[in-house]
Amino acid sequence: MSYKDYMVRATAGNAQIRAFAATTKELAEYGRKAHGLSPIAAAALGRLMTGTVMMGQMMDDGSDMITVKMDGDGPMKGVLATADNKGNVKGYVNNPYVIMEPNASGHLNVGGAIGEGSLTVIRDMGLKEPYVGQVPLYSGEVAEDLTYYFTKSEQTPSSVGLGVLVERENLSVIAAGGFIVQLMPFADEQTITHLEFNLGKFSSVTDILKAGKSPEDMLKIVLDGFDIEFTDTVDLNFYCNCDRDRVSRALMLVGKKEIDDMINEGKPVELCCQFCNKKYSFSIAELEEIKKKAK
Ligand SMILES: [Zn+2]
């Protein structure tokens, strides 16, 4: 089994089905470490980044960005992920330290930690108006919410499976991944029935990953009995495009008065990138320079 994150894209059943599957252990673990996430938060972010990076592959244009966020009234408050169509993804959790009792089936209670709320998908297509779709949260477990979103908001019957396995001892992510399977509008009844049968007997993404299976294997299980054509393989990475310049421009937008308050504190200011938690320190002299350009 390879330890590099990647995803595959496939079609099946004479192109009546399109499918995506990914292994995302490295990027999920990177996100966990960067943000110091609790196991529930690591599971939520890992699942959402996995779903979002696969959805990124549904966009045609290389400059398009997709953001998926879940906002809820639970203690985790929310989780957000952003991806491009080149396999880069980043994200964060509003309350990274959330801890809760396991749910009734003994699993990390991601749905309970998010609570009731909404799932929003924002597709940013450069200069054009962004496309925004929103649905209420279905269960807060992420995969079911994305399934509900595709069916409700995009009228594309879909099945999404996502899984993140967090080690109990050292709390690191030891497996992560998922799949998205979608029916094309011209799919016939036989194809639909057969796919539903396969999904009905599918165990779980984490079981499959734990057994050392690859994304290709996962799709062969979900699409058992169909002829599958793998059309693409994409490397996946946790990637943040923040830099000093971007952070100082964000600081300019905070406004002259707030920058003044920081200067009056008399010590350098440390700012963290929301997405990757990288720290940027600004000296008083640098803050003075930024203030000159601020409004
Ligand atoms: Zn960053």
Entry keywords:
five-stranded antiparallel sheet; six-stranded mixed sheet; 13 strands; 29% strand; globular; CBS domain Like; alpha+beta; single chain; Hsp33 domain
Question: Topology, please?
Answer:
Layout: E1 6-12, E2 17-23, H1 25-35, H2 39-56, E3 65-72, E4 78-83, E5 88-93, H3 110-114, E6 117-124, E7 131-136, H4 143-153, E8 158-166, E9 173-183, H5 189-201, H6 205-210, H7 215-222, E10 228-235, E11 237-238, H8 244-254, H9 256-265, E12 269-272, E13 279-282, H10 284-293
Parallel strand pairs: 5-11
Antiparallel strand pairs: 1-2, 1-10, 2-9, 3-4, 3-6, 4-5, 6-7, 8-9, 12-13
Helix pairs in contact: 1-2, 8-9, 9-10
What features would you describe in this structure?
With 295 residues, the protein is α+β, with helices and mostly antiparallel strands. It folds into two domains: 6-238, Hsp33 domain; 244-293, HSP33 redox switch-like (CBS domain Like). It has ten helices and 13 strands. It has helices at residues 25-35, 39-56, 110-114, 143-153, 189-201, 205-210, 215-222, 244-254, 256-265, 284-293, and strands at 6-12, 17-23, 65-72, 78-83, 88-93, 117-124, 131-136, 158-166, 173-183, 228-235, 237-238, 269-272, 279-282. A six-stranded mixed β-sheet has the order 7-6-3-4-5-11, covered by helices on one side. Strands 8-9-2-1-10 form a five-stranded antiparallel β-sheet, with helices on both faces. A hairpin with a 6-residue loop joins strand 8 (158-166) and strand 9 (173-183). The chain is globular and about 70 Å long.
